[in-house]
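check this:
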Amino acid sequence: PRPKQPLFRRTFIRQWREHRDLTLEVLADRVRAINEALETTHASLSRIERGLQPYSQLLLEAIAEALQTDVASLLMRDPSDSQALWSIWDQANPGERQMIVDLAQTVTKKTGT
């Protein structure tokens, strides 16, 4: 049998789950504890991770809370990419973050000619 192709947009739910060192079962338990109305199973989370099942905004919000991140990160950020700007930002202390902002502003500053 051929593997099923993703039907839905890619997410980084699996990467965030693995980053937090959680199994599908534990994540499903956490999601249900956050919102009892969501009858989420580890099997449905697996299908969502593989792009085989759609997700709702309500479910994404519960998953994000369970993974201690935000919805945007589930859709756009791979926490396993240590070279990504967001990963560098997350590891920086407040003083270093200000330096990152200052450098970014310097690099992107338009010079008049």
